[in-house]
Amino acid sequence: MPTSTRAPALIVVMGVSGAGKTTTGQLLAAHLHCSFADADDLHVPASIEKMRRGLPLSDEDRQPWLARVAQTIEDWRAQGHGGVIACSALKRHYRDVIRGGRDDVTFVYLHGTKAAIADRLAVRSGHFMPGQLLASQFEILEEPTPNEHAIWVPISGAPHEAVAAVLTGLEERGMAQALSTTITDDPRALAEALADWFVEILQAKSGRIVVAVAGGSTPKAFYQCLATPPCEARLPWERIHWFFGDERFVPPTSPASNYRMFAEAIEAARFIPPENLHPVPTKEASAAQAAGRYEEELQAFYGSDRLDPSRPFFDVTLLGLGTDGHTASLFPGSPALDERQAWVRPSMAPDGSDRITLTYPLLESSRETVFLVAGADKRTILARLLGDDQALPAARLKPNGVVRLFADRAAFDDASG
Fold it and tell me: Matching CATH topology for 3-172 and 179-412?
């Protein structure tokens, strides 16, 4: 069975009505590339009507609401990804219910004076809660105690300043880029664990889904899992677009082609609509021309030649780890390591073969980044990666979203020590 540690951050932005919970929470979720929910949307109709009439809610009124808030967080936890929810959470008891007996929920307390928040409420419109209930909220407010380890943020600054303060607090706690680690006994179990996670993540997403795939023998087993029951029937194939993190400059029919390996392993002809498969155009005259053409396709797909941190290109990016610390085709000493403008660059492998690789800016533009590592020959280099050895190209990657490690025991055992 896989073992997992350090789940992504689960955050509750709390405070009285008018503190700016929704605005701050939405901006924070956009920065962390995670889900956002507003607890106001989880109230039962009777409670909403009661507040509209200017009547404060009792503890009994709040019980079904608190249960829904706790369930939202539990759903995120079960899906293995982070989330931010805006919720008043005024009493310690309410926060305990929301935590659900777990210590992986961080509360961010937006605090300010009653006068300052009343001024905000006076100009707010379209919300079911009238300003006259502010006094009742301050009356029952129990500010977080030190043993709750909440992040306190004053409301006096602009929303982006509040988010910056939260991110600083998370960074101090080592949560801004928490590494979720899944370890299995062998490569086959590793492929199956990754496939289970991948299917759950994609099922939870709406609209278009964009994935960057990796080459190599370890990912191949994962792609084969996706094309077999039960995974193949659960994937929304028609909504998934597949791009390549790197490619060898060889014809697509070559045994060395990442595209060929992927297409055969995942049975692309059966499951993937042709327009959803985006191989690197290796029929160009040179690797540089292929890189240029691929960048044009990527930018046309994205709709811009500039990456927006609040709108990641990829939903999931799959990466391997070479014994020299390379990932994609970003090799030690390659000029591509210093590229911060172009999205795609030609590269040369240590054996002298030409490659095409996505660069750091595009690889980092991902909601979920997965390193897939297997085999005892990777143990030493994985230990260096986990130790943040900046000499390694893989360690220099700083994804904007959640970073995950899927490894087998041969690669991981003692690697983290």
Answer: yes
